[in-house]
Design goal:
heterotrimer; A mainly alpha (244); B mainly alpha (255); C mainly alpha (164); A: 244 residues; mainly alpha; 77% helix; globular; C: 164 residues; elongated
Chain lengths: 244, 255, 164
C-alpha cells in the first residue's frame, strides 16, 4: 500500500512532461481517426498503442515500480499486449476500421484517462501522489474505448487481456482500497457485453449452435455473475471507508 | 452383385466416412463397426485397419469375390461428439432402413455441414467451467474470479492461434503460458494463489485422446491406442512446459 | 451441512463438465445428461473421500464406474454413444492439483541439483504426485470403460433408432 503510492509518485514526478506529450499525441491521432481515417493514421495509431504498452511495461513497471513485488510479471503482461498490437499491425487485422456505432459510450471511455486525475483530486489526493493519464489503468480504459469506437472486428485476445486486467483492478480495490479503479471495472463490463452482443448479432442470419437466444442468456448470466462479484467488492469498500 | 464402378463408389464413400470419424475423435472400434454396418447395408463386406495418420480399407463383394483396397489419409479435424453420434446413428439408419448409397451420401453431407459449437459460447462456458473447477479444488472466491478471466485469455489465445493455423504443440505451450501468467495475479493477493495457478491451464487437458487411447488399447487396437496416448502425453508435456515457464518466474513465492 | 457440501460439489462439477464438454462439440441435447452424470459422479467421489475415508484412486474408480453405467442408461434415450456422455463427465475429476505439483516438484528438483537432500525431497514429491495423477487418470478411464465390456450388445447399439 505504502510502496504502491510511493512508486506512483516517483513515476509521476519524473515523467509528467512525457505523459503530457503522449496525451497530446493520443488526442491528435484520435482526431485523425474521427476526421480522416486514412491507412497512415491507422498504422500510426497501432504503433502508438504498441509504444504505449511497451512504455508501461518498460518505464512504468521495470524502472519506477521496481520496489513493488512481481513488477516483472506485470511488465511481461503489458509487453505481451504491445506484442499483440504489433502482430495486429503485421497481419493487417481489421481493427481500427471505423464502424460509426457506439458513439455514446466510446467517447466517454476515450475521455476516461483525463477523468482519472480529476477523480483522484476529488478524492483529496495531491500531485504527484495521484493517478495520471499514462498509467496502466487509464491506458487500459483508453484501449477499450478505442476498440469500441473504431473496431470492425475486435481483437478478442486483447479485449480479454484488458478484461482480466480490469477484474484484477477490482480485487485491487478490495485489497488495497484504490477506488479510482472502479472507473475501469465499471467500463469494462458493459464494453465486454457490447462486444459479445455485437458478435451474436452479426451471426443472426446464419444457423449457429447453440441458438442466438442461448448465447444471449449465457452472456447475461456471465455479466450478472461479474456484477455480483463487483457488488461484493463495492460493499467491502464501503466497510473500509466506514472503518476509517 | 456389384459392378466394378459401384464397388469403387462404395469404397470411396466408406473411406471418407471412416476417416472423417477417425479424424474427429471417435475411438477405433466404433469406426470399424460403423463402417462395416454401412457396408452391410450396401451388401458388401468392409474391412479396415487404422494407424494414426492413415487407414487401409478393403471392400469385398462376397458374391463375385471382387475386392478393392485403398489407403486413405486421416484428415486433422477438430473433435466433434455431435458428428460422432450423428454418424453412428446414420450407420444404423442405413442398415435398418436399407438406404441406397445416394441417400446415405446425401444424409452424410447434411450431417457434416451442421454448424459447430459457436466459439464465443465455448469461450464463455470454458471460463465458467475452469472457475468452478478451481472452486472444486478448494480455491476461494478471489482465486475463482482470477481463474475465470485467466482462462478466458488463455482460451482466446488458443482459439486465435488455432484459427491462424499455428502448430498445435506451440498453441498448447503458448496458451498454458498465458493462462498461468494471468493467474499469477493471484499471488499479489491474500488468497489461495497456488490453486489458482494450478487450475488455470487445466482447460487444455486433452481428455478425449487420453480416454480414446485407453479404450482403443483395451479393445485390442493397441497400436493406434498407443499412438493416441503418445499424442495426448505430448500435449500434456506442452502444457507442463508452458506452466513451468511461469513457475520458473514465481517459484520463490510458492515455496 | 453435509448435504449442502455435497450439493455444492455436484453443482460445480456440473458446470465444469458442461464447459469442458463444450470444447469437444457435443450435441446440444446431451448437455443436461452430461451435467447430471458429472454431478452424480463427482459428488459420489467427494462423499466417498470425505465421509467413507476412501483414497482418491479407488474413489475415482467407483465414481467413474457409476458415470459409465449412467451413460449406458441415459445415452439410449437421446441416441448418443456412451463416450459422448462420459468423457465430458469425467473431466471434472482430473486430478489437477496433483498434476500441478508434479510439474512444480520437477522444476524445483532441477533447481536444487547442488543440494542433495533438498533435491531428494523434491524427487520424492515428484514421484508421489506423478503416481497419484497417473493412476487416477488410468482408473478414471478404466472405470468408465468397464460397462462397455459388461454390456457390449447394448453399448454398441446406443444410436440405433429401432429397439432390438
Amino acid at each position: 500500500m505504502e510502496t504502491f503510492w510511493k512508486t506512483i509518485a516517483a513515476y509521476n514526478a519524473a515523467t509528467w512532461p512525457v505523459q503530457l506529450g503522449l496525451t497530446l499525441v493520443a488526442v491528435v491521432l484520435l482526431y485523425g481517426l474521427y476526421r480522416r481515417p486514412t491507412p497512415a493514421v491507422r498504422v500510426a495509431m497501432k504503433l502508438f498503442m504498441a509504444f504505449l504498452n511497451f512504455w508501461i511495461a518498460g518505464v512504468y513497471y521495470m524502472v519506477y515500480c521496481r520496489p513493488r513485488e512481481y513488477h516483472g510479471m506485470l511488465a511481461l503482461f503489458w509487453a505481451i499486449m504491445g506484442g499483440i498490437w504489433i502482430y495486429d499491425l503485421c497481419v493487417k487485422h481489421a481493427s481500427l476500421e471505423r464502424t460509426g456505432r457506439h458513439n455514446a459510450f466510446a467517447p466517454l471511455l476515450l475521455a476516461m484517462p483525463l477523468l482519472y486525475p480529476l477523480c483522484s483530486l476529488a478524492l483529496g489526493r495531491e500531485f504527484p501522489m495521484m493517478t495520471m493519464p499514462v498509467m496502466p489503468c487509464s491506458v487500459a480504459v483508453f484501449t477499450i474505448g478505442l476498440m469500441l469506437a473504431f473496431s470492425e472486428r475486435v481483437n478478442i485476445v486483447l479485449v480479454l487481456f484488458l478484461c482480466h486486467w480490469a477484474l484484477i483492478g477490482l480485487s485491487k480495490v478490495y485489497f488495497f482500497g484504490i477506488p479510482e479503479d472502479y472507473l475501469l471495472a465499471c467500463s469494462t463490463v458493459p464494453a465486454l457485453y457490447i462486444f459479445f452482443r455485437e458478435y451474436v448479432r452479426s451471426n443472426a442470419e446464419r444457423p449457429t449452435k447453440p441458438s442466438g437466444r442461448v448465447l444471449d442468456v449465457l452472456l447475461i448470466v456471465v455479466c450478472f455473475l461479474v456484477g455480483i462479484f463487483f457488488t461484493f467488492t463495492l460493499l467491502h469498500q464501503f466497510n473500509l471507508f466506514s472503518d476509517i | 452383385m456389384k459392378t466394378k464402378r459401384e464397388l469403387t463408389d462404395i469404397l470411396g464413400f466408406v473411406a471418407e466416412y471412416a476417416t472423417y470419424q477417425l479424424g474427429s475423435g471417435v475411438h477405433t472400434s466404433r469406426v470399424v463397426r460403423n463402417a462395416r454396418r454401412i457396408g452391410e447395408a450396401l451388401g458388401v463386406d468392409v474391412r479396415l485397419s487404422s494407424f494414426q495418420k492413415s487407414t487401409i480399407l478393403t471392400v469385398l463383394d462376397s458374391e463375385t469375390g471382387e475386392a478393392e483396397t485403398r489407403v486413405v489419409a486421416i484428415p486433422a479435424l477438430p473433435i466433434s461428439f455431435e458428428r460422432n453420434s450423428d454418424l453412428s446413428a446414420l450407420s444404423w439408419d442405413a442398415l435398418d432402413e436399407a438406404l441406397p448409397l445416394d441417400e446415405i451420401r446425401r444424409r452424410y453431407r447434411a450431417l457434416v455441414e451442421k454448424p459447430r459449437m459457436d466459439p464465443i459460447f465455448t469461450l464463455l462456458v470454458v471460463g465458467l467451467a475452469n472457475a468452478s473447477f478451481c472452486r472444486l479444488f478448494g480455491g476461494d472466491w478471489t482465486a475463482v474470479g482470477i481463474v475465470f478471466t485467466a482462462t478466458l485469455v488463455g482460451f482466446a489465445v488458443k482459439q486465435r492461434m488455432t484459427a491462424h493455423g499455428i502448430n498445435h504443440f506451440l498453441v498448447f505451450v503458448a496458451s498454458a503460458f498465458v493462462a498461468s501468467l494471468c493467474a499469477t495475479a493471484a499471488l499479489r493477493f491474500d488468497c489461495t494463489a497456488e490453486i489458482a495457478l494450478a487450475t488455470s491451464p487445466l482447460f487444455l487437458v486433452p481428455g478425449v485422446p487420453l480416454i480414446n487411447g485407453v479404450i482403443d488399447i483395451v479393445e485390442g487396437h493397441v497400436l493406434i491406442g498407443v499412438s493416441r496416448l503418445v499424442n495426448a502425453m505430448l500435449l500434456v508435456v506442452c502444457i507442463a512446459v508452458g506452466l513451468s515457464a511461469t513457475l520458473l518466474m514465481v517459484k520463490d513465492s510458492l515455496l | 451441512m453435509i448435504v449442502a457440501d455435497i450439493l455444492l460439489d455436484a453443482l460445480f462439477a456440473a458446470v465444469a463438465a458442461i464447459g469442458f464438454g463444450a470444447i469437444s462439440d457435443p450435441p446440444m441435447r446431451a448437455f443436461p445428461r452430461i451435467a447430471a452424470l458429472a454431478a452424480v459422479g463427482h459428488a459420489l467421489r467427494f462423499g466417498l473421500m470425505r465421509y467413507a475415508e476412501a483414497d482418491i484412486a479407488s474413489a475415482s474408480f467407483v465414481a467413474a464406474f457409476a458415470i459409465g453405467m449412467g451413460s449406458l442408461w441415459l445415452g439410449r434415450g437421446i441416441r448418443c454413444p456412451m463416450t459422448v456422455l462420459y468423457i465430458p463427465a469425467l473431466l471434472p475429476m482430473v486430478p489437477g492439483i496433483y498434476a500441478y505439483k508434479t510439474v512444480f516438484s520437477l522444476i524445483m528438483f532441477l533447481q536444487s541439483l547442488e543440494r542433495a537432500d533438498e533435491g531428494m525431497r523434491f524427487m520424492q514429491q515428484f514421484f508421489l504426485n506423478a503416481t497419484v495423477s497417473l493412476s487416477v487418470i488410468g482408473l478414471l478411464a478404466a472405470g468408465a470403460t468397464l460397462p462397455i465390456f459388461l454390456f457390449n450388445r447394448r453399448a454398441f447399439s446406443m444410436t440405433r433408432r429401432k429397439r432390438s
